[in-house]
Design the sequence.
């Protein structure tokens, strides 16, 4: 891939990772639409690492408070803030287990057969409808402080579906959070925090791939550019989305997903997509 493609795809990753529209679907479809060769999973993961750094930087204060409070609670602190931090830490850990297991078991299928336009169309429409239903009919009466272990397990369990392109990790976690009664901002914040341990697993796998020499030297510069562009655009999108959800609904994203899925089906029917 050339450097211009790396710039475009890095921005696509940053714009779509945190919006409930599926970054993996867009990274697969954009090359199809523009007539580019598929960039491969190595570039996708490098761009994913850029958005991982973005969420770490954006939520750095939350993470320091979470880890510090959890450590103090483990040392015997009875402070309410420390006990709450420890509770949320273990809820996030619990919610990460399903995607770790499913990601390991399904890794070969994801790298090969899952990068399929028809599958992406169906998941975009189906999970877009679920997002719209949750946003319209859920009670949205609970904050992040009200998240329970059951919430963490259910959101984490369904997050595991995000290994399928088109499902959208942020989309399915926000949808589940809304169905569990979280308000829109709380569902988004919990989704972003749950993104961090899940991304640590992806980062660890990618580090092993690099150490094992599985990435060609010619791919490193495009991967670096994708990483930087994904980081820059991702950190802007996080702040924008949280501000949006304080005042507006997720309906626009549900509609976008349904229209996107419909357009993909049309192109697929006409033989334009494999």
Sequence:
């Amino acid at each position: 891939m050339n450097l211009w493609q790396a710039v475009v795809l890095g921005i696509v990753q940053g714009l779509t990772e945190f919006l409930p529209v599926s970054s993996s679907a867009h990274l697969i479809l954009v090359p199809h639409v523009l007539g580019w060769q598929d960039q491969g999973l190595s570039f996708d993961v490098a761009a994913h690492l850029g958005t991982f750094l973005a969420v770490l930087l954006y939520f750095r204060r939350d993470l320091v408070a979470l880890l510090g409070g959890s450590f103090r609670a483990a040392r015997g602190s009875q402070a309410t803030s420390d006990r709450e931090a420890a509770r949320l830490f273990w809820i996030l850990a619990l919610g990460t287990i399903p995607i770790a297991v499913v990601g390991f078991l399904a890794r070969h299928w994801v790298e090969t057969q899952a990068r399929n336009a028809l599958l992406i169309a169906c998941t975009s429409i189906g999970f877009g409808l679920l997002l719209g239903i949750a946003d319209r009919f859920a009670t949205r009466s609970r904050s992040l402080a009200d998240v329970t272990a059951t919430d963490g397990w259910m959101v984490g369990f369904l997050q595991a579906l995000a290994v399928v392109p088109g499902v959208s990790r942020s989309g399915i976690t926000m949808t589940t959070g809304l169905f569990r009664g979280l308000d829109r901002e709380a569902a988004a914040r919990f989704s972003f925090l749950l993104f961090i341990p899940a991304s640590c697993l992806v980062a660890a796998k990618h580090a092993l791939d690099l150490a094992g020499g599985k990435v060609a030297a010619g791919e490193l510069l495009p991967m670096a550019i994708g990483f930087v562009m994904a980081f820059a655009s991702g950190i802007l999108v996080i702040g924008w989305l949280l501000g949006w959800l304080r005042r507006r609904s997720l309906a626009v994203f549900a509609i976008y997903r349904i229209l996107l899925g419909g357009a993909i089906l049309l192109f697929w029917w006409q033989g334009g997509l494999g």
User: Anything to note?
Assistant: The longest helix spans residues 184-211. The chain has a mean pLDDT of 88.
